[in-house]
Amino acid sequence: MTPVAVFNDTSFTDHYGCHAVMSALGRGLRARGMEPAYHWPVARDWRDAVPDVRALGVRALVVNGEGSIHHSETRERARWLAELPELARDLGVPAVLLNASISDLDAATLEKLGGYDLIYVRETQSRAYLVRHGIEAAFAPDLSFDTPAPVHAAPRRGLLVTDSVMKEARRDLRRLARREGGRFVRMIERPSPWRKLVARLRPGAPVPQGATLADAGKAESFAARLAGARLVVTGRFHSVTLALKTRTPVLAAESNTAKISALMTDVFGATGRVIGAAELASPNFAARVQEGAAFDTAEGEALDLYLIDARDRIAAMFDDVARLSGGTGR
Predict the structure, then answer these.
(1) What are the sequence ranges of the domains in the chain?
(2) Distance CA 231, CA 284 (A)
(3) Is 1.10.260 the CATH classification of the domain at 159-308?
(4) Positive or negative CA dihedral for 320, 66, 254, 184?
(5) Same fold, 2-146+310-325 and 159-308
(6) Is residue 198 predicted with pLDDT exceeding 60?
(7) Which fold has domain 2-146+310-325?
(8) How does 110-140 read in b/e, with b if 16+ C-beta sit within 10 Å?
């Protein structure tokens, strides 16, 4: 197996969607002869990892972009990830950026981002943004679409509401669930007292080399809960992706960037299922929720095509990484 280092491992957040992404990333790499030999967590400067990565002799740096690369003037995390090709050049290995939503970057960050040998973004809007700035990129849907779809034979029942990264939307979504008799689910599990203690004593510490906190079982269990619902209302990008993966009707409030609108446009060609923050408390929206917002025929056909395309594009993305990094391919 060809050893690679994985950066921006979001499974450390214990977020269901991030468990789905990081599990899929590991599966895709290993299926093509690449072994993630080192994981570096989200929200920590990669420069602290240099001695370990150098000692391992990895053959590539693989960066999971997700929603980390935006508003670089105020978010140092975006700048850190754009600068990772510097380490790759120093090690003499390729740097690949996968599964990213990208927007609102300053000129210096864009220039550094152009140092990646391969970039895959998860919405066509992100690709268009990079192309406008002279950076080549390919498109493959979010890795959570690689989560195995649960088999759900029972009739769909009830409303399932998840939270949002936005404070006001999170409050209104919780109120919606209470008002409409729905179940409210947090996307990030509450950490155990032991986990809190470790985080306090060793803030940001990486797990041992070669390890990750990715738990495919948590992702699949959450997907199964979505599959049992009549309707999902959410403010989380990965609640949308997993609802779509399970063909569960979904309505969504936008997140901290336009990534949900971009995803809906890629799938349906429109943003009719994206709701404004002010709509969450409106009587008209309550009526729409009560009706169930089922997919119409055109939406169902568009979703079927998107899911087939997602499978093929994700596979092609990993094939490209293998060709660049010395993996074996499928």
Answers:
(1) 2-146+310-325, 159-308
(2) 16
(3) no
(4) positive
(5) yes
(6) no
(7) Rossmann fold (3.40.50)
(8) bebbbbbbbbbbbbebbbebbeeeebebebb
DSSP characters for 191-226?
Answer: PPHHHHHHHHHSTTPPPSTT-----HHHHHHHHHHH
CB 135 within 8 A of CB 114: yes
Which is more confident, 151 or 215? 215
Cα 68 from chain centroid (whole Å) = 10
Taking CA 301 as the corner, what is the angle to CA 300 and CA 304, rounded to the nearest 5 degrees? 85
Least confident of 12-26, 65-79, 139-153, 157-171: 139-153
CB under 8 Å to 132, separation ≥6 — which residues?
Answer: none
User: Which residue type, as a one-letter code, is found at position 137?
Assistant: A
State which amino acid sits at residue 155. P
**Could you give the strand order of the β-sheet that contains 95-103, starting from the edge strand earlier in sequence?**
34-41, 2-9, 61-70, 95-103, 118-121, 138-139
pLDDT above 70: percentage of residues in the chain: 92
Work out the end-to-end distance of the chain between its first and last CA atoms, rounded to an integer number of angstroms.
13
Amino acid identity, position 308: I
